Amino acid sequence: MKNIWTSIRRTPYQSLSAFLILFFTLFLTLILFVSLTFLYGTLNYLETKPQVTVYFQTKAPETQIFKVRDELMSSGKVLNIKYISKNDAFNIYKQLNKDNPLLLEMVSANILPPSLEIYAKKPIFLPEIAEYLKKQGDIDEVQYEKDIIDKLLVLTNTIRRSALIFFGYLILMSIVVLTTTILFKIALKESEITLLKLIGATNFYIRKPYVLESLFLGIAASTLSFSIFSFIVLYFHPFLQSYLKGITTLSIDVSNYSLVIWPLNYVFFAIVFISISLFGAVISSVASYIATNKYLRV
């Protein structure tokens, strides 16, 4: 640590430039990462909302309806299925038309069809479910919002591709700018590096202080960016509570583990901090390694 501080004091402006580049890069990455995480959590939440509604013929026996329901549940593609009997449908009809007695007199439970409201685990499963239902007997009609589902799938895929492209660009830009900055820093010690090579110092020995300094700057920048971002998130927490009112939980799937991102919790913050710290350490180490290579080539 003493050597790192000494190196920083010797070249304060170059060290400050490298730190600021890392800080702004990591802060922007942090904002993008958390925003995308919340967006994915929201998409996962919305993916459970689209439904297929299948109306059976009025003569269809309940055993046939329950058979279809059980087969769908066993497929692994369905999150939940709600059975609406004739009586349930009539009660819903009465509630909707309670202010129109004439309509209530014209309809009885016997003429209303039983139905199943099917909630898929993923919207991509809905066309498959609808196609399966159309092939079953005693089916009167199958309804699902195909246009809405298609738009949701397109949005999800677009976000994924955009995130990969942006992260790739951000990493490349950061490494290039950091490498250039570190090269200016190392150039001031070119004669010292040449002398070390002449007396037989290994490449690892020469490279080590620059890599350690870069690691220190990367971790410091990630800690500062995380601290500022956490303060901003906590400051706007009441607004988020109001904006996300009605949504009890948002989560994303990480290697078969459901990570809860809303309500805010210590586990999510810890994972974000570890991720951004590793990201900062990696890009700073790679940049310093590339920069030192210029002066270590035989």
Write a brief structural summary.
Helix content is 69%, strand content 12%.
Describe the protein.
The chain has 298 residues and is of the alpha+beta class. The chain folds into two domains: 2-46 and 156-296, no CATH class; 51-144, Alpha-Beta Plaits. It contains eleven helices and six strands. A four-stranded antiparallel sheet has the order 2-3-1-4. A two-stranded antiparallel sheet has the order 5-6. Helix 2 crosses helix 9 (203-235). The mean pLDDT is 81.
Give the secondary structure arrangement, pairings included.
Elements: H1 2-10, H2 12-47, E1 51-56, H3 62-73, E2 78-84, H4 86-96, H5 101-106, E3 115-120, H6 126-134, E4 139-144, H7 146-187, H8 190-198, H9 203-235, H10 237-243, E5 250-254, E6 257-262, H11 266-296
Antiparallel strand pairs: 1-3, 1-4, 2-3, 5-6
Pfam families: FtsX, FtsX_ECD
Domain FtsX extracellular: 51-142
Membrane topology: Multi-pass membrane protein
Uncertain parts: none
What is the rounded Rg? 30 Å
Q: Could you estimate the helical fraction of the residues in percent?
A: 55-70%
What spatial form do the alpha-carbon principal axes imply? elongated
- Mind describing the biggest β-sheet? 4 strands, antiparallel
Structural class: alpha+beta
* Sheet with most strands: strand arrangement: 2-3-1-4
- For the terminal residues, how far apart are their CA atoms? 30 Å
Order of helices and strands: HHEHEHHEHEHHHHEEH
Membrane topology: Multi-pass membrane protein
Domain ABC3 transporter permease C-terminal: 165-297
InterPro entries: ABC3_permease_C, FtsX, FtsX_ECD
Protein name: Cell division protein FtsX
